[in-house]
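Task: sequence in, structure out. Protein: Activated leukocyte cell adhesion molecule b.
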Amino acid sequence: IKLLLQCRKWHYNFAAVLIERNVPLLLSSAVSGSEIVGLYGETLEIPCNNGAIKADDVLLTKWKYDGGDLLVKNKDQNVSITATDEYKGRVSLAANSSLLLSAAKLTDQRTFTCMMVSSSDIKEYPVSVEINKMPSSLEISDKAEELEIGKRTKLGTCVAQDANPAAEITWLKNNERLVADEKGISIQASVQVDPVTGLSTTSSVLEYSAKKEDTNAKFTCISQHKGLTSSPVSFNITYSTENIVLQVIAQEPLVEGDNVTLKCEADGNPAPTSFMFHLKGEVMKVENSDTYTITNVSRDNSGEYKCSLIDDPTMEATKEVSVKYLDINLSPSGTIVKKAGETLDLTLQIDASEDSKVSWTKDNVKLDKEPKFTKVIFSESGRYECEVTMGLLSRKASFELVVEGAPVISKLIKQRGEDGKHKVLICEAEGSPKPAVSWSINGTSLDESPFVNGKITHKITVVPTANLTVSCTVSNEFGTDSKAINVSSCKYKVVAQGSTNLAFFQLVCFIDNMAKKKKKKTTTETSNGENADYRPL
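Result:
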């Protein structure tokens, strides 16, 4: 067995020597070829067996092509460059046995073969090489100065310089692909090959029939090489005016005293810059501007307005201008003084450009309807305001009503105090100016309400020791009024409730007339003229 192994080792060493000396051998096996793509001008790495090499088993590595040998490397020895042609200074061997080929060019598009001798076999690995090159530039030349609507015109030529394979050019409008239809779009491409470098230059000519919407369009061209796009170009597209529009620029709503601007807009390229403005019978020529301003408008400025082209008066646009107005007149106004019982006639005149709505408030409280004053009373005193609205417009007017007259007591009542010992007497009166209030008995004053809308309320507290009659008197510069009310004294008895320690009060009020006579119900005139019943409590 040892002898057999030694013979086998001697056999492959001898084969390696023969390979190194270019002596043809019968290979024990061959591997089907692979393909790689390299970039023009870059260093190309051509793998041997796709890089799957076990260096310990390799006795000899050799690279060659159909034109001759390139290099050879014996185990534990340096690489020997055997190329004598253009590859002599361009080839080297990588650590993984790949062939390194510098400054790749189109003539390198061929098959390179890696031959490997190991202790057990001899194999070859062919690799087919393709060299690609992006275009050195992509530009649009021979650009048209302007395009005319409906007429097919040469827009420009897109040139992709020095590429391999030849560039395929696509035209875009606003990033949308253009497709030749031989009507409005024609695209013709041609390719030229450099006889020295072998690189291809592609030219693509676009003829295009422009439309009005192409005024601001961006045209570009791209090649199939990733990320390569030309700079966008735009073209001046000429066409006559087809549409004209008149705009009214003003705040909303447009009211008297405001300014209004008329703006005339027309299409076409070049677009018109001067116009005629027709102002209700008056014609104004405006040059190098598309606006005309009317200041401090009034309702008389309402009506139809026009603008037209100077060189074509038939090309015109119209617009209706409506000046809103809302005038109101409230009579009477200011401060109005009336005697109680008198009549107040109100007149509200409205002059408006449209239908309006009216609302009323009294002392900032909304009223359900317009106030009517056939016979004014004290409670109708106050500030009245009307608001007239028409859309976003509103107007307000107001008056202050003061009702004067002799005071009248509207209510005189009595209430039991919280402790059961006191009586609270309440006197309400109406009148204007504010009436003075007096009582026929001394008491403690609890409260006097504010004088509002001709009304005042006065309260006093008394501790009656006997049955008595109390009068309330009110007076001002116009007269006096007085009312009386009967007030009875009260007795108290405290009764204990056994062991519950619960105390309560029994209040027994005796009216002399009831005790001495028939114990009938007695009536006493109240402040409003009605009879109030008084019973023992």
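The first helix runs from residue 2 to 20.
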